[in-house]
Amino acid sequence: MRVFHSDNPVIKRERLPLWEHVKVGGARRLVPFEKEIVWVRDACARLKLQHRGVELDCLRTMCDVYGYLTCVQAAIDEVPRFLAEFKIESGDQLTIAIELEVRDLPLLVDDTPDGRAHNANYKRKQYLAPEPGQWYTSDQPDEERFYPILVCLYVVKDELVWDSQRGYFGRKRVEALSDEVSHLLPKE
Question: For the chain, first and last CA: distance in Å?
Fold first, then answer.
């Protein structure tokens, strides 16, 4: 498990039946168990270099380090540096764009002594994140014989929120992209 710190909103808590591969008597088997999962809403903003709307490169990815949706402003703050670096001016076919991704992450409350001590003293809570593909949500494979794994749920994926031709599409656009977040955003 990886340690994950966040002060982003917890969207939901639920006790889930899960399965994990373990060796039993030398054979690999799926063993059922239950865990309380907290779904924490998280966002990333990606700065992309584009030519006529076609992505050439992902220049930087900003995450919610200082609170929910702070990644958007952090990405906007990086734009002048990239505009100067690539000598992009108004009307150019080469542009910088910012795309937003919002997802709900399945995490565990860190109930270790270190986790409890951290969570009692800090606003940014400490969680444990299962390794990708570690836990399954069913012991029944799908039609391609894959077991469904516990993964993040995407609320918004690759949604344009800023570009160097049109500017910032506004806080209302960002709010609309992630349901019921207006009370979490900083006041203008």
Answer: 38
Spatial separation of the C-alpha atoms in residues 105 and 19, rounded to whole Å: 18
Distances from the Cα of 35 to the Cα of 7, 71, 102, 104, 128, angstroms? 21, 30, 24, 17, 12
pLDDT for the residue 159: 85
d(C-alpha 20, C-alpha 33), whole Å: 8
Instruction: Please provide the DSSP assignment of 172-184 as one string.
Output: HHHHHHSTT-GGG
Q: Say what the pTM is.
A: 0.79
DSSP assignment letter at 40: E
* 35: CB partners within 8 A, 6+ apart: 15, 16, 18, 108, 135
| Cα–Cα distance measured from residue 13 to residue 185, given in angstroms and rounded to the nearest whole number | 22
Token pair of 83 as six digits: 């505009």
Residue 70 one-letter amino acid = T
